[in-house]
Each structure stands twice: as C-alpha cells, then as structure tokens.
Amino acid sequence: MAFCTHCGAENQPGAAFCTKCGQPMAAQPQPAQPAAQPGPSAQQPVQQPAYQQTYTAPAAPRQPMKLELMSLIAGGLLILGGLLGLIFTCVMNPFYDLATGFGILNRYGAGNAIGGLSVWASIALILVWITPMLYGAAELLNGLLFYKKSRVTATLMQIGNYVNLGVLAHGFLVSFIYLICVIVFMVSYSHVLDGSPLPAMLIHCILALLLLAALVLLSLKNLRAQKQAVFSYHQHQMGYATAPMDSKLKTQPLALGIGSLIFGILSFFFCGFCDLGMGYAVAAFIMSLVLAAGYFFGFLSFNSISAQVAGQKAPDYKAAFDKMMQQNANKYVPTAAPAQEAQSPVQAAQPAQAAPQAEAQGFVRTAAGVRYPVGGQEIRLGSDPAQSGVQLSDPTGRISPVHCGIRFEKNQYLLVDYSATGTVVNGMRLTQGQPTYALPGSTVVLGESVTLTLE
Where are the residues of the annotated region Disordered (predicted)? Predict the structure, then answer.
C-alpha cells in the first residue's frame, strides 16, 4: 500500500492523487541497498575463464607381473654378482696376504710403509661386492612388495629407498679408497710397468679421478631427489597424494651400472700390473658384467614403476579433473532468476551465485595473516583480478595472472597449477595442469615468492 504524505491516508499502489485529500502522491522511497559483507571472501568475483584447460593422461601402465619380474631379475643378478665377487676375492686369491700386506711386501720388497695400505685395498674390494648386494635387496623388496598396498609396505618402501641412498655413500667410499690405492701402488711399483711407468700411472689416476668425480656429482644430484622419492613413495602408499617419484632418480642405477663396468676394466689392469693374480682380474671383470646387467634391469624396473605409479593414479587424475571442469561449467552458466526476485531491486543487487559462508570447509592463510575460505568450488589465485578470485600482489612479477586453483573436498585440498613459474607444495613442485591432493597444514609456495598455508 502507498501512503499520502499530506494526510496519511492509504491509497492503491500507483495512484497519482490521494483519494481523501486530492493532493498529488509523492514518490515512494526506494528500499536501502544492503551493505556489502566485509572480508576477503567479498573480493572473489566470478569471471569467465579466458583460457581453455586441457588434460593429458599419463602413459598407460605396464602389467604388474612384468614390473615384478624385472625387479626380481635385477635383485637376483646384483646379489649373485656381489656374492660371487666376494667369494672370488676371498677364495681364489691370496686374500690373507692382500689384507695383511705380506704378499705385496714379499713380491716387491717395498718396505713396511706400503704394506699397511693394502688393508684399505682389501676393504675397498669387499665394499665393491657388498654394495650391489644391498641394492639387489632393495630391488627384491620392490618386486615382492610394491603392489601390496599396506602400511607395512609403505614403511618397507621407505627403507628400500634409504638403502639406495646408502649405496651411493658406499660407492663414494669405494671410489675414494680405490683412488688412493691406485695412486700409491702406481708410484711405488712404477718400475715393474714394462719400462713405461709414467703413462700407465697417469691413465690409472685419470680414470680413478673420473670415477670419483662421477660418483660425487651423482651423490649430490640425487640426494634431494632421493629424499623426494621417499616422500612420494610414502604419499602414494598412504593414498593421499598423486605425485609420482622424481624422474631424476632414473639415472642412479644406470650410473652405477656404468661405474661397475669401469671398475671391472680398472680391476683387470690394476690386478695385472700389481701381480695380484690374473684369476681375480678376470673374475672381477666377469662379475662386473653381471652387476652391470643387474643395474640395467634395475634401471628398467625403476622407470616402469615410476610410470606405474602415475598410471595407477591416472583414473584419479581424470576423475578429479572432470569433476573440477563440471563444477566450473555449472559455476559459469547464468541461471534465470524467478519473476518475483527479478522485480525486486534488493534481490537484483545481490550476486547471481553468492556462495554461503557455511559452505567454506577450509581456509588458505597468507604470510600476512589474511585468510580466504575454500569450499567445494575451485578458487583461482593469481595476479590478475579479472581472471582470479583471489588477487595476490607480487613485486617480483613471478605470480601468473591465473597461477593456480584450489578447492576443498573429503578433508583435503585439491590443487591445480596453471602457472609458468610453478607451484610448490611441501617442497614438491606440481605438474602443470595435473590435479594434486594436499593435506591441511601443508605449505604452498607460488612462484618462489608468495607462501600460503592450508588450514
């Protein structure tokens, strides 16, 4: 009803004059607009996406039996080669003389100073054969337990990776001892090298230095990758992450196989020059070939297992991606408002699809302490307010216009990286365009400049 401003009488809506006093009706005041809700959630406009998202499925996984078989073959060859090499070292040659130094002293009469060094040589020879046995045990562990998803399996997989890290440490120790032995033996017994001591000594020293440098570089390179592999194995077995193992680790067994071949060649010439017996030299060379074959199968099984980890998660990737795209499609399709609401200026002033605050199940907190609610629909974070629901300022310019997307489901977060500078979760860089889960409490770094915390 409309009321006259002169006499206060009631009139029909739209009447031009008052039916009681005859005065013209004044314009009725419009309802007041509701105040905007404070907080970061009010700064999240729904925008049309300015780009087309695509999904690339991982490669089709291989059959589990083939993976298990390759791991078992690798472990068997490595353990067999290491065990036979250890037997040849201890039985076929004067191992006692080598360990005590008496045999070398009697052959060349070099004095007591050089005799003690042969003890280190014997330790190096033993470690050379024990190291692949440890690696082989890890391969057998992978082949026997990789597909049994349990808490025990996850723990054993971590132990297996730590054993692999110990293999690198042993390889470094062996190469260092071997380098010392080569240099000292070549200098002490240069007179028995067929009249050409200097070239032979230089060749052995250069090869030993190259072997040492290769193992040092390999250890430094794979130290971080090995740590991430343990992290990825653990997350994969626990079922709350989709990131496969770091592909950098695939060089580890291949490099160890090449190193075993180099050791076999060096041992062949080294034992011949130092008169330690050609029987051991030939045996060491043959066993090195066996070890190289074992490492090669380990290389194949590792890469296949890495592909299998991604392949097993491929349906999860695709399902999560399709669900996200469907939600975005529903989010961007305009819905027709009811007739009553379309005539109301109060309803027309409200956003078309304002998400209720009760739907927010998680929060993203910035380093400045600002918290943004996260619900079942994806929220995009970036530097462009026209394309991102949450604008992040970055003076270095490493935040992309649409850097990443995040939503909350089943008590965990689902993140998708869209950027060129990368999104890192708990020290692990996400694959661009590939949905990845993260638990509450995780730390997210955008472009190496903006840090967020998932609460």
Answer: 29-48
Domain that holds residue 121: 64-318
DSSP 22-73: -PBPPPPPPPPPPPPPPSGGGG------SS-----PPPPPPPHHHHHHHHHH
Q: In 333-427, which residue ranges form alpha helices assigned H by DSSP? A: 339-343, 345-348
Q: What SS3 class is residue 403? A: coil
Number of domains in the chain: 2
Q: Do both 78 and 184 map to the same domain?
A: yes
Residue 416 resides in a domain: yes
User: Which of 223, 126, 237, 235 lies closest to 166, judged by CA?
Assistant: 223
300 & 394 share domain: no
Residue 253 C-beta-side C-alpha neighbours within 13 Å? 28
pTM for this prediction: 0.38
